[in-house]
């Protein structure tokens, strides 16, 4: 009988995170201080010391603390599926595999880093974390992790998602978090934005500003982030390490890797352990494709430049593909992809032509997601539905050429809290937002005046 699931045992959970900085062959541009514009490190009280150390480390492997790995056992290793039913529905000769991260308690890949960050903060005597969240997957994951390590949590949830996804808020509150819509009246940043625009739908840039403003003055609080920075991407590499082993068990190696990108964490965690093979010359033809929304196309439409990571300019400045820190994306349902910038690692790889990117509209994305759900059963979140659309496009190319390529993607979370988006799709009211060129052009005028 042909296998559908490729499973690993708990003892095969990775014992170390993989650090791509050891194998890039080049140095990433430095982080800059948000005020002085001089090179800096991520200073306390923003992150635990272990996060700061990992951010700049060149060590190839970094040990996963045993208490973190013990929590991972609640859902890891995650299964790898061969999408045989979907292959048949698409009538493609391609082999399609997907790594399913939706089986964690919060329903996504996010607790891979949330648990680590909560553990490190608890170890430094911290009592409380503050964070932002877009669609709510990150906030849910951190609420789960904080409950396990007895930490308080304040979540600034992008207002449009706060309104679109009330059950994400309730999930966070069930795990003990306090959740407010951002921009909020709880911080000076939020107060200023609301005074100028009471109907502001919010953005991840604004929510980050509020969370940093919350954590900064307090000795008992760390700021926690779910994507973008090197140390977060590092934590997610448990996904790709497991995936490599599972594909080896299936007797395959991918020709194409696909994932969605907002800040870059789920995709990086999936593809970086494979990318080592491309960088060292072992698999030079490996294609890596990241999929982003046309409404927030940071990589495909933005310049590669230094920019602040948040709207209020309190977070460090990074060299990245950006739409400008003041850019407010359209209220698409893929809230986790509505970030103005991209992870420095992904940005550097794209700038060098090592990886590819595509920008997609909402309706074709949901059409692909429904196709997948009707064949495979799992209902994808709107974010990984972008990856699914990119997989469809590649699989249909294989249909045209007759090539039996191996395509693997990361299904980073389930869509059980996103049925309102599917409802709009079936009703024909789901909107496709055009590339917001003029808005981006205006936002880019606010880039810091530094080199790069």
Can you describe this structure in just a few lines?
The chain has helices at 49-56, 66-72, 84-90, 111-123, 137-148, 159-164, 166-174, 188-196, 204-215, 230-235, 238-250, 265-279, 298-301, 344-351, 362-376, 382-401, 419-427, 437-443, and strands spanning 5-6, 16-18, 61-63, 80-82, 95-100, 128-133, 152-158, 178-182, 221-224, 256-260, 287-293, 304-308, 317-321, 356-360, 406-411. By secondary structure, the chain is of the alpha/beta class. It has a 7-stranded mixed beta sheet, with helices on both faces. Strands 8-7-6-9 form a 4-stranded parallel beta sheet, with helices on both faces. The protein has a two-stranded antiparallel sheet with strand order 2-3.
Overview of this structure, please?
This protein starts with a strand and ends in a 9-residue tail after the last helix. It is an alpha/beta fold and 452 residues long. Helices cover 40% and strands 16% of the residues. The longest helix has 20 residues. It is built from 18 helices and 15 strands. Strands 1-4-5-15-10-11-14 form a seven-stranded mixed β-sheet, with helices on both faces. Strands 8-7-6-9 form a four-stranded parallel β-sheet, with helices on both faces. A two-stranded antiparallel ribbon has the order 2-3. It has two domains: 172 residues, Rossmann fold (3-Layer(aba) Sandwich), CATH 3.40.50; 241 residues, Rossmann fold.
